[in-house]
Design goal:
- This protein is of the alpha+beta class.
- The strands form eight sheets. The chain has an eight-stranded parallel β-barrel with strand order 15-16-19-23-24-25-26-27, surrounded by five helices. It has a seven-stranded antiparallel β-sheet with strand order 1-2-5-4-3-6-7. The chain has a six-stranded antiparallel β-sheet with strand order 28-29-30-35-32-33.
- α4 runs parallel beside α5 and α7 packs parallel to α9.
- Catalyzes the formation of the alpha-1,6-glucosidic linkages in glycogen by scission of a 1,4-alpha-linked oligosaccharide from growing alpha-1,4-glucan chains and the subsequent attachment of the oligosaccharide to the alpha-1,6 position.
- It comes from Limimaricola cinnabarinus.
- One of its GO terms (molecular function) is 1,4-alpha-glucan branching enzyme activity.
Length: about 750
């Protein structure tokens, strides 16, 4: 029979100060008092905090009573001396009653730790390469009981508790065990399962209660604006992309066609009433569209969970959780799988440079600047009002590296496009004199960030063969895509921001003025192989007042489309892999708006449909013609035929591969003047054919094309002994190949 509440403290019960620490939420290590403990007399006592209960009994797992507990504090602390034979490893359950309601549960404070000493050691060293398996929330069976293990890094906290609906969001009820070796806190909570909502309640280093924190390692979070973490565990998806993954592991992308379609999942397509589509629906539509359009890869703007939709994902708080805006982790995995089975690679934007200061996120996580630098000259991004990771801290660098390899490993992502690399590399990025702190040598380079990037790229290469990393890096920092063992940062590719800015600046000029800016289209060849480049026309070029790609083009409507087609033809034949933001392929007219769908109705117009058809054919030809992609990263794959015809704004060059591959001759006429009998030198004789002409009527052009076979002749031109003549269309790019 259970005793009633008592104000009389048994002599062998825990001391009053510890009882007070429990009920006031100040107990730094609850295992010092809760659960079974030796009494001063050598017997075993059991302490339970159960503020909802009027009576508590200890039972065997079979339901037999072991002993009643006495309420030794009116706020719900119970204690009882256990019979002989009861020890630390003895299994038991707790039977509780309040009024007419009774229930049973296992006691979290009877279980041994889930984390091991090796976990502590590797976390502290910054070498725990699968940290997602140990930290966070994991449905497990521990010592024969089903529940959820929670673990979090908060080295400066005085107390860490897990809270949720299961404990009335009361941080006193489930304080975590403190692991002093590495600043980890952990607790196995029996009876919890997938779908349970939770956060961490943290008493900071100075005794101040922090805002409730989402789990940095959660696999699933509530749909914003809600901010809770959801017990989920690793996604449960039966992958069917084995052939793709096996093929991926055997090689690199440097000599392969890479044509990337950049997508914002929330605004690519929407439902009939403007509703956001889920991963299943988007995945099916994307597979069909990308297959039709011959893109080799899709790149998703950040899919990591983020609180503010208007950040487009570039201010994430859940680096291990696909955003719940579009569905579950299983649905995201299924979308990736479906794309792979269709032969389409998947790239995601990954953001290790900075994070938002939202109260539920990483900011001031344990009451100190834990993930970020404390000094705003190092830890605050003025441009974005975000916080900068402390890359020099082992645990932070490890957390970020693991988040990158997690997507490649567990979600079969093929490449990470690393955002804002320039902001990571330089301590004075977007800062004035006196607003930054030099490195130990007095320089502006962020040495910790450099080592972090090298370490990340090394870990990606070692753990996920065939996966790639791509740097969005806008400066002349040397060796971004050079291997680490050769002194580089180790990225596979770098965005060619110089080409993007120069070529867009050129194409926006009225054709009559282009001859004065000819160098803007030729300069990129001077450094085209200093890095392994991707040519990006990304979302950044069609927002914030910059206008759409189509509307950057000068002239009337016909000329706008002609310029667009000529420019895309030049881009697809220029050395480097290709990236095009969604909508640019069909000439989206208005600026991109993340809150609404692209204007797919424009495809009812022949000009827009023609632009789309051109991109489809450019992708096909780029993929099929080895000369246009095999040596994208090798100077032997390019040769000027005439790069100096500034007066007529004509560019002519060859793309080449090995000796057995036919070359491709590319000619771009960036004026609206038709050049009849345009004479061009050839690398070889014989018949040539026009493989593509952006002025073809099928693309909405004027139809100045070259049909049939073009006969070469033994007549010198452009320093070559063989040449031919053709009709060079206005504002157009032409691709010629030998007829063999």
């Amino acid at each position: 029979m259970t005793t009633n509440a008592s104000d009389t403290m048994p002599a062998s019960a825990p001391d009053a100060s510890r009882i007070e620490a429990i009920i006031r939420g100040r107990m730094g290590d609850p295992f010092e008092i809760l659960g079974p403990h030796k009494t001063d007399g050598g017997a075993m006592g059991l302490t339970v905090f159960a503020p909802d209960a009027a009576e508590v009994r200890a039972l065997t797992p079979e339901g037999d009573e072991i002993a009643p507990l006495t309420r030794i504090n009116p706020e719900g602390v119970f204690w009882g001396e256990m019979p002989e034979g009861f020890d630390y490893g003895t299994p038991y359950r707790l039977a509780m009653r309040a009024g007419d309601h009774s229930w049973e549960r296992d006691d979290p404070y009877r279980f041994t730790p889930v984390l091991g000493e090796m976990d502590e050691y590797l976390v502290a060293e910054g070498r725990h390469e699968e940290i997602w398996k140990r930290l966070g929330a994991h449905p497990v069976t521990h010592e024969g009981v089903e529940g959820v293990s929670f673990a979090v890094w908060a080295p400066n906290a005085r107390r860490v508790s897990v809270v949720g609906q299961f404990n009335a969001w009361d941080g006193r009820r489930h304080p975590l065990r403190r692991r002093f070796g590495a600043g980890l806190w952990e607790l196995f909570v029996p009876g919890l399962a997938m779908g349970d909502l939770y956060k961490f309640e943290i008493v900071g280093a100075h005794g101040d209660l922090q805002p409730l924190k989402a789990d940095p390692m959660s696999f699933r979070q509530e749909q914003p604006p809600a901010t809770g973490s959801i017990v989920h565990g690793m996604h449960r998806h039966d992958w069917q992309d084995g052939d793709w993954m096996e093929s991926r592991a055997k090689g690199s992308l440097h000599d392969k066609p890479v044509s990337i379609y950049e997508v914002h999942l929330g605004s690519w397509r929407r439902g009939a009433d403007g509703e956001v589509l889920d991963y299943d629906t988007i995945g099916g539509l994307l597979v069909d569209y990308l297959t039709e359009m011959n893109f080799t890869h899709v790149e998703f703007m950040p899919v990591s969970e983020h609180p503010f939709t208007g950040s487009w994902g570039y201010q994430p708080v859940g680096l291990f959780a696909p955003t719940s805006r579009y569905g579950t982790p299983e649905q995201f995995a299924a979308m990736v799988d479906r794309l792979h089975q269709a032969g389409i690679g998947v790239i995601v934007d990954w953001v290790p440079a900075h994070f938002p200061s939202d109260a539920h996120g990483l900011a001031n996580f344990d009451g100190t600047a834990l993930y970020e630098h404390a000094d705003p000259r190092q830890g605050f991004h003025q441009d974005w009002n975000t916080l900068i990771y402390n890359f020099g801290r082992n645990e932070v660098a490890n957390f970020l590296r693991c988040s990158g390899t997690f997507w490649l490993d567990k979600y079969h992502i093929d490449a990470l496009r690393v955002d804002a690399v320039a902001s990571m590399l330089y301590l004075d990025y977007s800062r004035n004199e006196g607003e930054w702190i030099p490195n130990q040598y007095g320089g502006r380079e962020n040495l910790d960030a450099i080592e972090f990037l090298k370490g990340t790229n090394h870990q990606v290469e070692a753990r996920t063969p065939g996966a790639a990393t791509i740097a969005e890096e806008s400066t002349a920092f040397p060796g971004v895509s050079r291997p680490v063992d050769q002194g580089g940062l180790g990225f596979d590719f770098k965005w060619n921001m110089g080409w993007m800015h120069d070529s867009l600046s050129y194409i926006q000029n009225d054709p009559v003025h282009r001859k004065y800016n000819h160098h803007q289209m030729t300069f990129s060849i001077h450094y085209a192989w200093s890095e392994n480049f991707v040519l990006p026309i990304s979302h950044d070029e069609v927002v914030h007042g910059k206008g759409s790609l189509l509307n950057k083009m000068p002239g009337d409507r016909w000329q706008k489309f002609a310029n667009l087609r000529a420019y895309l033809g030049f881009m697809w034949t220029h050395p480097g892999k290709k990236l095009l933001f969604m909508g640019c392929e069909f000439g989206q007219e208005r600026e991109w708006n993340h809150d609404v769908s692209l204007d797919w109705h424009l495809l009812e117009d022949e000009k827009h449909k023609g632009a789309q058809s051109l991109v489809r054919d450019l992708n096909r030809i780029y993929r099929d013609e080895k000369a246009l992609h095999a040596l994208d990263c090798d100077p032997h794959g390019f040769e000027w035929v005439d790069g100096a015809d500034d007066e007529r704004s004509i560019f002519a060059f060859l793309r080449k591969a090995d000796s057995g591959t036919r070359p491709a001759l590319v000619i771009s006429n960036m004026t609206p003047v038709v050049r009849e009998e345009y004479h061009i030198g050839l690398p070889e004789g014989g018949d040539w054919v026009e493989l593509l002409n952006t002025d073809d009527e099928a693309y909405g052009g004027s139809g100045v094309v070259n049909t049939g076979k073009l006969k070469s002749r033994q007549e010198e031109c452009h320093g070559r002994s063989v040449s031919l003549s053709l009709r060079l269309p206005p504002l157009a790019t032409v691709i010629l190949v030998p007829d063999r």
